[in-house]
């Protein structure tokens, strides 16, 4: 059925839970997993004549965001390894997250996009926009939307 599945993540707890579920789904199908983190592009300061000394250069920003991407994608790598699956991951820079998810799935010849939904509706979705909704409306590849019944516990909290 599906042999190559794209699993995008933003590093949030909900996204991490969806990524783990996506890997478990891929395991059932013995599918290859591709993890994707879309980092925001570098923003030049509006006060370009006087750049504060603590403002990162473009190279510093790109390097730090690659590390952030590696950190967020590690959830997918670890879950795939534990499931005995092949996984590759990539960080892409763009301010159009949904478009990059669809483009990457197309370029990588993915059969499916497995994406989490934060579950916002109504004004929350209208005001904040929904990457998942944008992917759904602009994609020719099948999309499986993972919605959790309840919010996950934040990592590092004690019970």
Automatic annotation (TrEMBL):
It comes from the Bacteria. InterPro entries: Rossmann-like_a/b/a_fold, Universal_stress_UspA, UspA. Coiled coil: none annotated. Gene3D superfamilies: HUPs (3.40.50.620). Residues 1-147 form the UspA domain. Belongs to the universal stress protein A family. This is Nucleotide-binding universal stress UspA family protein. It comes from Paucimonas lemoignei (Pseudomonas lemoignei).
